[in-house]
Amino acid sequence: MSAPVYDSNNIFARILREEIPCKKVYEDEFALAFHDIAPKAPVHILVIPKGPYVSIIDFSANANAQEIKGFYAAVAAVAAQENLDQAGFRLIANTGANGGQEVPHFHVHMLGGKRIGPMVAD
Ligand code: AMP
Questions:
Q1: Among 9, 61, 82, 87, which residue's CB has the most CB atoms within a 10 Å radius?
Q2: Which residue's alpha carbon is nearest to atom 17 within ligand 1?
Q3: Catalytic residue positions?
């Protein structure tokens, strides 16, 4: 798949360039994790890859194996660091218009700290 056009001025690209601040939780070569600015649960962390990928579709098709492995390893590292791994959490990747994706830089939401409600709102 050819890569879609990536908007390098999206808010997460600007966070990666440190043009705007974030409440950082974790960072390594492949990923950055930070608290969502409008948390929907007691713990609401976003994990983003460092590369310029619009969505999980773009990431899966166009990131290399190291980037993909590194990204999911970062999600697991955040789960361990934030004590989400034992009690559990929900991982969400909103994708495109029907998925309600607002920021066009691939990210996953990690929601925890309590029992998260129904999987999809009515
Ligand atoms: P999505 O709908 O999956 O694209 O989610 C985008 C998420 O980014 C929303 O939950 C927003 O609250 C969050 N968000 C937007 N701007 C910021 C920011 N500057 N820092 C942290 N989270 C943000």
A1: 82
A2: 37
A3: 107
- 3-state class (DSSP) for residue 86: helix
Which structural domains are found in the chain, ordered by start? 11-112 (3.30.428.10)
Per-residue tokens: 49:
């890859």
Write down the mean pLDDT value for the chain.
96
pLDDT tens digit sequence for 97-113:
999 999 999 999 999 99
pLDDT at res. 120: 86
Tokens linked to 31: 């990923």
Entry pTM: 0.97
Question: Which atom from ligand 1 is nearest to the alpha carbon of 104?
Answer: 4
Residue 38 Cα to ligand 1 midpoint, Å, equals 7
Q: Is the pLDDT of residue 122 over 80?
A: no
Joined together, the tokens standing for residue 76 give: 């697991």
Residue nearest to atom 18 of ligand 1 (CA): 37
Region 43-52: mean pLDDT is: 98
